[in-house]
Design brief:
The chain is an alpha/beta fold. It is 46% helix and 16% strand. The protein has 8 helices and 8 strands; from the N terminus they run E-H-E-H-E-H-E-H-E-H-E-H-E-H-E-H. The strands form 2 sheets. The chain has a 4-stranded parallel β-sheet with strand order 2-1-3-4, sandwiched between helices. The protein has a 4-stranded parallel β-sheet with strand order 6-5-7-8, with helices on both faces. Strand 7, helix 7 and strand 8 form a beta-alpha-beta unit. Helix 4 crosses helix 8.
Length: 218
Amino acid sequence: MEILIINPNSTKSMTDEISEAAMSVAGSGTRITAINPNDGPASIQGREDGEACLPHLFALFEKRVTPASPYDAVIIACFDDTGLMELKTRSHIPVIGIGEAAFHAAAMLGPRFSTVTTLGVSVPVIEENIFRYGFGDQSISVRASGIPVLDIGDQTASILEAEAHRAAKEDQCDVIVLGCAGMAGLAEKLSQSVKLPVIDGVTTAVAFCEALAKVRAA
């Protein structure tokens, strides 16, 4: 199958990291294409950035997702699920958000989950999405690590790991959700460290796309 991943921010290096994470779990018959707008916010941190990226995201989506395009599904690779509901109504193929995918997977894996994200400004948007999707009773907390989106990497991994351990201890959660597309490559290491399932939305969204393709073909 063909999956199109759209990173709504304009930072290509982040898109490349998202693509690498997606390809690491994609099946042998799955092709990943990852793109981002050339304009708009360099990162999406909070409601204001999310709104600023929408014209560029929508224009790119309309250009690339047409009846003639080869894609079987689209992933919106911003944990805020920026523009997701609008794009679902515009699309003839499934459109999945990485936040949406992560919360559904977390709810399947355990009765209580906590989310570790970037900055505090992102927390209200994520909390609203959790309740919109119907997981308010299972979500224990949305915790800000204090790491800006574009600073996520090896040098800040210890900060994220410490926040994940605090979530496990203080929240007594069963699952931890990583609340940023830039955290995709850290899930396995953090899971080993905190001894809990750690969900990354990018790889989870790929798995859901592949599963939906099988269901639609049945």
